[in-house]
Specification:
Keywords: Coiled coil, Repeat, Ribonucleoprotein, Ribosomal protein, TPR repeat
Family: Belongs to the TTC4 family.
InterPro entries: Csn1/TTC4_wheel, TPR-like_helical_dom_sf, TPR_rpt
Distance between the termini: 126 Å
Protein name: 40S ribosomal protein
Largest sheet: 6 strands, mixed
Radius of gyration: 41 Å
CATH superfamily of one domain: Phosphatidylinositol 3-kinase Catalytic Subunit, Chain A, domain 1
GO molecular function: Hsp70 protein binding; Hsp90 protein binding
CATH architecture of one domain: Roll
Number of helices: 14
Order of helices and strands: HHHHHHHHHHHEEEEEHEEHEEH
Helix content: 40-55%
Structural class: alpha+beta
């Protein structure tokens, strides 16, 4: 074990020099130095940082005009760097300085409007520019920025008025002159668009009227159903009041249309109640027969429906039925049989048949099955529209 004397003789003092700090602690210290700050300091920052507190005291040192001007300049620097968040905060602080200089306050408002213009906050632009012009009517930039915001909002008439007011004060202002050309061009575009919109609307209205007249001439009855107010009820009652437009709430590809040759095509639903299945025929021509569609859909060369396990859904066995639609409240719903050789127009023209909610509905049931018997027994009458 070495003696104290030996320890003293062998001791080598550490080399003097800088001690390496923890990288995170070093970065935090740097970012808290005012020169390197990437954000506006808070009151808490100033309380914890003596250097920052001293600098902030200098910022607020002076009369309101000097303080507001200082914040305006700092805001301008941030705006040039596209640091919009801090630019707005500096302009806010400049306005909070409560300077009596109307022109200075108008400039702060107008500069804040410039930031919001770049950000697309057009209504804030209009608010600040209006306030700036109340303080200084000679502020041409306020006219310019108001005009740009109004144009961006497609308020072209107001934009033109605002631009002309600015030009009345500074007729040779190139920026306003150029902006006015853009406004006039946009105004013409919007007027042309409005003309086309009105023409399209007029054409649509004429087509609807012609369609309605054709439907009426065919003797087709249209009915809408109103839902019961009691949510617990699963029944519907037919509305015998004026029906809504025939194509209301229908998909554009599933609507009754009038062809150029004057032929109506209807959306028709084939319902298979035994299996709770259905098919929607988007365009069933009124001069087509039910047999035409049944042969096409269930012919021998067609793939059988997966739910037709017994193979009874064939053209030779399928019967078509349609429910009557009451013409007055309390009238019973009956079941009519539709012959396969009947055309759609003939069936829809029957007094007791109606197109409900824009879609003609027909039930297809295979003849000779127990389900067919039960299905017919649900109704009180078996009269029908006969065919071959």
């Amino acid at each position: 074990m070495p003696t104290i004397q030996e320890l003293v003789e062998n001791y080598t003092p550490p080399v003097a020099g800088p001690v390496q700090k923890d990288p995170e602690a070093l970065m935090k210290e740097i970012m808290n130095t005012p020169l390197f700050m990437d954000r506006l300091p808070t009151a808490e920052d100033a309380e914890e940082n003596e250097t920052l507190a001293a600098i902030q005291s200098l910022v607020y040192d002076g009369n309101p005009d000097e303080i507001a001007t200082n914040f305006k300049n700092q805001g301008n620097d941030c705006y040039k760097q596209k640091d919009y968040r801090n630019a707005i905060q500096y302009y806010n602080k400049g306005l909070q300085a409560k300077s009596d200089n109307r022109i200075l306050n108008a400039t702060l408002l107008c500069n804040r409007a410039a930031v919001n213009l770049d950000l697309g906050n057009y209504r804030k632009v209009l608010t600040d520019c209006a306030a700036a012009l109340r303080l200084d009517l000679s502020n041409i930039k306020a006219f310019f920025r108001s005009t740009k915001a109004l144009l961006a909002l497609d308020r072209v008439d107001e934009a033109l008025d605002c631009c002309d007011l600015g030009l009345s004060r500074e007729p040779n202002n190139k920026a306003l002159q150029s902006l006015r050309v853009s406004i006039v061009k946009r105004k013409q575009e919007m007027e042309e668009m409005e003309v086309k919109r009105k023409q399209k609307e007029e054409k649509r209205r004429e087509e609807e009227e012609k369609l309605a007249e054709t439907i009426k001439a065919r003797g087709v009855r249209l009915v809408t159903f109103k839902r019961p107010t009691n949510d617990d009820s699963d029944t519907e009652e037919p509305s015998l009041s004026k029906p809504s437009y025939i194509n209301q709430n229908l998909d554009p590809s599933h609507r009754v249309t009038l062809t150029p040759s004057g032929l109506l095509t209807w959306p028709v639903s084939f319902i298979y109640p035994e299996h709770s299945q259905s098919d929607l025929i988007a365009a069933f021509a009124e001069d087509s027969t039910f047999g035409d569609h049944i042969d096409f859909m269930f012919g021998e060369d067609q793939q059988r429906p997966s739910w037709d396990k017994e193979g009874v859904y064939t053209p030779g066995r399928l019967e078509v039925y349609v429910e009557t639609t009451p013409t007055e409240v309390g009238e019973d719903v009956k079941l009519l049989r539709v012959g396969r050789d009947l055309r759609l127009a003939e069936v829809l023209a029957l007094p007791k048949v109606a197109v409900v909610d824009g879609v003609a509905r027909f039930y297809l049931v295979p003849r000779g099955t127990e389900f067919a018997k039960r299905f017919r027994r649900r109704y009180k009458s078996k009269s029908g529209a006969k065919g071959k």
